[in-house]
Amino acid sequence: MITLRYFEQADFKHLIDWVETPEFMLQWAGPSFVFPLNEFQLKEYMKDANKKDSSSYIYSVIDDETKKLVGHVSLSRIDRNNRSARIGRVILGDPNTKGKGLCCQMIQQVLKIAFDDLKLHRVTLGVFDFNRAAIACYEKAGFQKEGLRRDHQKFGDDYWSLWEMGILEDEWRKIAEDM
Predict the structure, then answer these.
(1) For residue range 130-179, what is the model confidence (pLDDT) as tens digits?
(2) Most exposed of 45, 124, 169, 178 (fewest Cβ within 10 Å)?
């Protein structure tokens, strides 16, 4: 099991250490950060986050068993008029946590915040088409593929395609009943 708590400056080093290559940086954050990740960028990322009525909430993921920080996730682009938001910057950085279902737990907890606490109607995310493990996790959480942005992002000489995925509140409620 995991617990989400607000991301704080004491967590910066973990995140910086987890993002080891420009390729991984792009997979994790899209083009919004410049490699190498540093404290200045993370301070900017946190500006105006995690406050009442913020447009973004940024979380650290804590493994309940070990009490260690093992991951990171954000809920951003919160639009209270349209009752929508976007999950992003999903990472399980501790290699010892891979394959234990913690990513799915992380997504479920963020969706609980989005739909139960914030009373949103729709949550979206983007995932590169080659990240099959993440796609499977998101589908298990109830996300549906809504469209493929072909050759969406250039990295080196390659182009990466991005799946746009979304889940609506009634779809979440059906899944939440079965948990």
Answers:
(1) 999 999 999 999 999 999 999 999 999 999 999 999 999 999 999 988 87
(2) 178
Q: How far apart are CA 50 and CA 31, in angstroms?
A: 22
- Nearest-angstrom CA–CA distance, 25 and 16: 10
Structure tokens at 129: 């088409």
At a CB cut-off of 8 Å and minimum separation 6, what does 172 contact? Answer: 111, 115, 123, 142
Indicate the SS3 state at residue 72.
Answer: strand
**The token pair that represents 19 in the structure block:** 């993002």
What is the tens place of the pLDDT at every residue in 20-56?
999 999 999 999 999 999 999 999 999 999 999 999 9
**pTM more than 0.85:** yes
164 touches 128 (CB < 8 A): no
Q: Which two tokens stand for residue 23?
A: 């390729």
CA distance linking residue 123 with residue 106, whole number of Å: 14
- State the DSSP code for 37: P
Q: Which strands, in side-by-side order, build the sheet including 69-79?
A: 2-6, 57-63, 69-79, 84-92, 122-128, 158-168, 144-155
